Amino acid sequence: MPIANVRTPIPGPKSKKLIERWLKVEADSTGYQAPVVWDKGRGVTVTDVDGNNYLDWTSGVLVTNVGHAHSHLVKALQEATGKLLNNYECPSLYRVLAAEKLVGVLPPHMEKCFFLSTGSETVEAAIRIMKRKTGNFEIIGFHGGFHGRTYAAASVGGLAGPKRGYGPAMPGCIRAPFPYFYRCPFGSKTEEECAAKHIELLDDTVRANSVDSLAGLIVEPYQGAAGFIFPPKGYLKRLEDWARDKGLLFTVDEVQSSYGRMGTQWGHTLEGLEPDLMCIGKGIGSGYPVAAIAGRDEVLGCLGKGEMSSTAGGNPVGSAAVIAVLEIMEKENLAENARHMGDLIIERLRATQEKSKHLGDIRGRGLVMGLELVKHKKTKEPAPDLVRQAIDRCAQNGLLIGSVGIFGNVIRVAPPLVITQAEAHESCDIMEKVLLSLE
């Protein structure tokens, strides 16, 4: 029996009224989504206020890795909430246990962490630490990079949207090209060639922009907001070696790529990297807002007492979430499930690609994939209008999806890691139906 069940037009009557009320009182600055008012969720399913059931390929926005409203996480949050809501900089039992639990799953070369509230906050912290540790002020980011909407995070990123209309970006940001093989500007025939040419560009980029005050570099294991762009295998290791040769600190932004999303706890370990700092968010709380920065003790230790803090970072409820999420992931082997279900979904999608006129590229690893829609496969002209159609048609058929991409033409595939084989097949059936209906 199908899980998805949409019985009303989209939006349904209750959703329509609530959206109208919402837009009267809150700034209309969010991205384009299907006009659905969420009511409750469980695992991979979401139910709206009109009683329609959907399969979710968004995980919020790569947040609910352990599934919506996992019973163990909900119970942990309820128990913590009944005891204490905030303790600012003071330790609590929950905070100590959470830090021990997190450090216990970090790569062996990372000895410390510090809890914050959001992914953007961890990036701001990483940038400050790289500057403080080295005494320099220049930070290298990448075209297409997205690290958040706060000032330094947006500045070092390589997308115009978060910066447009706000005046000068933070001084000292240097942005280098990132290998996007499907649209390689060099016309590379292989991923290896594309990677090599982009490594060669790094020295030219620094030579043209640096004033000899390089502090560090920040990169995502894959570029999320740019369109789920996965660099060629080996590129990130070559990038790390390049940074080491220059004496730079190396930071990975794992806000959306970690916690099993790529089929392993930390995405960067798939490339054998040993970063100095790591930004963690989203999946760490799987719905509860909590984040952390982790790194080598010698790097985090450059800050003195009172030089890094957070109003809500390390609060007892967020700390309880950190513990519960890791317990769930370990008990249910969610990283392994992400690998298996990811293989199933990508195989189904590649079969659909052969029949679709507009599905130009599929890329991904584990349970994170990008479906790039184009007007014609030969010209690769981006088709953002088709993505909007797909969002609406998928919702009407019971599948919630989102869009990303430099050109707004990439469908985001990122279901909760608890997805089952039956849920994977049903959601792929819906996606195929919608993609083949696009004209």
Question: Could you explain the architecture of this structure?
Answer:
This protein is an alpha/beta fold and 439 residues long. It has 2 domains: 13-62 and 333-437, Aspartate Aminotransferase, domain 1 (Alpha-Beta Complex); 72-332, 3-Layer(aba) Sandwich (Aspartate Aminotransferase, domain 2). 38% of the residues lie in helices and 16% in strands. The chain has 13 helices and 15 strands. It has helices spanning 13-25, 59-62, 71-81, 93-105, 119-134, 151-156, 191-209, 235-246, 297-300, 316-332, 334-355, 384-397, 421-437, and strands at 38-42, 45-48, 53-56, 112-116, 138-142, 173-176, 214-219, 249-253, 277-280, 291-295, 359-365, 368-373, 399-400, 402-404, 410-413. The chain has a 7-stranded mixed β-sheet, sandwiched between helices. Strands 1-2-3-13 form a 4-stranded mixed β-sheet. β5 (138-142), α6 (151-156) and β6 (173-176) form a beta-alpha-beta unit. α7 (191-209) packs parallel to α8. The radius of gyration is 21 Å and the shape is globular.
